[in-house]
Design goal:
Distance between the termini: 64 Å
Shape: elongated
Oligomer: single chain
Helix content: 25-40%
Order of helices and strands: HHHEEEEEEE
Number of helices: 3
Strand content: 25-35%
Strand order of the largest sheet: 4-3-6-7
Number of strands: 7
C-alpha cells in the first residue's frame, strides 16, 4: 500500500490532535496536576491592591533602612533607628512558594528596633517576605525574596 502526501498529512494531523486530546484529558482529571491559586483569598486581595501600591510607595523612602539578614538566632528584621519601637504595628508574613503548609505570620510587637524570626520556623530555601507595618498613621509595605 502506497501512502501519498495527502494521506500522510491527514495521519499526522489526526495523530497530533489525538496527542493534544490525551494531554488535555490527563491534565484535567489527574490530581497530581491540580494546583491552587497562590493565595486562598486572591479575589478579595485584589480589591485592596491600590492600598498596597500606596504602602509600597511610602516604603520606598525606607527601602534601604529596613534590613533583613540571617543571624545565628534566626532572621533579623531591623527597622530604622529613628523609629520608636512602640509605635510600629503590623505583621510579617513569610510565604514559602514550594509548600503552603510552611507559610506563617508574625505580629510586630517589639521593644527594640528589630524583630527576630526564630531559626526553628525557617527551613532552607526560598522565602517571600511581606512586611506590612504602620508607623505614625502611615502604612508601609516591603516585599522581599530571600534564600535562607
Amino acid at each position: 500500500m502506497k501512502i501519498n502526501w495527502g494521506t500522510g498529512i491527514v495521519i499526522a494531523i489526526v495523530a497530533f490532535m489525538s496527542f493534544i486530546l490525551y494531554m488535555v484529558i490527563t491534565m484535567s482529571t489527574d490530581n497530581t496536576y491540580s494546583f491552587d491559586l497562590v493565595t486562598e483569598n486572591y479575589y478579595q486581595k485584589e480589591v485592596h491592591f491600590q492600598g498596597e501600591i500606596n504602602a509600597e510607595q511610602n516604603a520606598l523612602e525606607y527601602k534601604d533602612k529596613v534590613t533583613i539578614q540571617r543571624t545565628v538566632d534566626g532572621l533579623k528584621i531591623a527597622f530604622p533607628k529613628e523609629f520608636s519601637p512602640k509605635e510600629i504595628k503590623g505583621k510579617v508574613f513569610l510565604y514559602r512558594p514550594s509548600n503552603k503548609q510552611l507559610d506563617f505570620e508574625i505580629p510586630i510587637s517589639i521593644s527594640k528596633t528589630y524583630l527576630l524570626v526564630p531559626e526553628k520556623r525557617l527551613l532552607d530555601g526560598r522565602w517571600n517576605i511581606n512586611l506590612a507595618f504602620k508607623y505614625k498613621d502611615k502604612e508601609y509595605l516591603i516585599k522581599r525574596e530571600i534564600h535562607y
